[in-house]
């Protein structure tokens, strides 16, 4: 049913929760998971002119490499994974990448905001759901999971990286 499952990620707990679903679906359908990180350099357009644009782009790419490395760490050995960093507007890039000829399902995390928060903040997930030419599965990390996730995050000493089993 699915050949390629697109998973936009930002390295957040919501993104990791979406990955769990994507990996399960990929295994069931013998599909490839394509994880993308969208570097939205334009969102920094309001910064003063003396800001080093190269530095911002470089920082976003570095953040993206970290998020995509985490995808590869979490990937089961029996699921094919592709990763890519793409610059642009998150919702536009995701919709562009989600075509029946390339990825035929989008699985993405959402913060689960509702009501006035959603109206004020906007939502990449909402825009993707409205504009995507392929089905979109949104995975919500509820407040209880979010709180327990932040409780489990170990404090690493300076220059020390927590072990994946600790996270």
UniProtKB/TrEMBL annotation:
It holds the Pfam family Usp. InterPro entries: Rossmann-like_a/b/a_fold (IPR014729), Universal_stress_UspA (IPR006015), UspA (IPR006016). Residues 1-140 form the UspA domain. Residues 139-167 are annotated as: Disordered. Coiled coil: none annotated. Residues 140-155 have a biased composition (Basic and acidic residues). Residues 157-167 have a biased composition (Acidic residues). It comes from the Archaea. PANTHER family: STRESS RESPONSE PROTEIN NHAX, UNIVERSAL STRESS PROTEIN UP12. Belongs to the universal stress protein A family. This is UspA domain-containing protein.
